[in-house]
Amino acid sequence: MVLEYIIGPRGAEKKPWQMIFIGALYVVVAFFIASWIFPENIDLVTVFLCTFASIPVIYDAVRLEEREDIEEKDEINVLMQHGRALNFFICLFIGFMLGFTILYCVLPAATVQNAFITQIKTINAVNGNATSELSRQFGAFITIFVNNFKVMLFCLLFSFVYGMGAIFILAWNASIIGVAMGSFIRLNLQHYTEVMKMAGPAAYFKAYGLGLLRYSIHGIPEMAAYFVAGLAGSIISIAVIRHDMGTKNFEKIILDSSDLILIALAILLLAALVEVFVTPLFF
Predict the structure, then answer these.
(1) Most buried residue, 53, 114, 144, 218, by most Cβ within 10 Å?
(2) What is the pLDDT of residues 220-235, one digit of tens each?
(3) Where are the domains of the chain?
(4) Torsion angle of the four alpha carbons 215, 89, 158, 97, in this order, in degrees rounded to the nearest 10
(5) Secondary structure of residue 44 in the 3-state scheme
(6) 197's torsion region: left (phi>0), alpha (psi -120 to 50) or beta?
(7) pTM of the model
(8) Which long-range contacts (CB under 8 A, 24 or more apart) does 149-156 make?
């Protein structure tokens, strides 16, 4: 009852950047608790604990968004108000991602290989499929978009069925991207220090900078799309819980949620285009 109430929804919307530090703190604390109590299942338990810590502030924020749906008459103003919530959701995800990245980079290699074994297997499976299936750019775009669309649907369904269920999917994706980024940084750091003979601070700065750039270019838009879809599903879920079905308020909520889903699809399309046609230009 401490970590989850460090910041409330109002404070998170006013100062979303704080969620970056809070998200990273959630990951670090969750990792050490999981290491202590569940040493055989650190990878998944860490994600679960991050999810549990995030639920109260996310739930309160979604309740505010559902109330604004009902009270605000102008659809444009409603979407702009949802943008504030989206900002702190994205900052929370960035915090998760950075927390996993930092842990992967600072802990001993043997420790991270055992602690994040499920994430590493997932990354290797994705990379293996990329060689055989994504040989052409158009095929790559279709495959990536379809895979991301499936994740978006999971976020939408989880948030509707389980209320805040989408946060688990997002925390899991943050752990995968964080581990992939950490692996990229460690490999490049070794290259810069041993092969290129760069000094410590310069090597660290370059490796971390490239790692963040490589995975953030398309990763952040993807996560934004997932959050938008999750927000839509959560708003509908809360409206159902409040027994608004069959009322004009519920019709308005459905209309607003449909707009959010269309926006999520547009962002997802843009993210897939960037991943296929822009990111390879730099890496």
Answers:
(1) 53
(2) 788 888 888 887 877 7
(3) 3-282
(4) 30
(5) helix
(6) left
(7) 0.77
(8) 149/265, 149/268, 151/226, 152/225, 152/226, 152/229, 152/264, 152/265, 152/268, 153/229, 155/226, 155/227, 155/229, 155/230, 155/233, 156/229, 156/230, 156/232, 156/233, 156/261
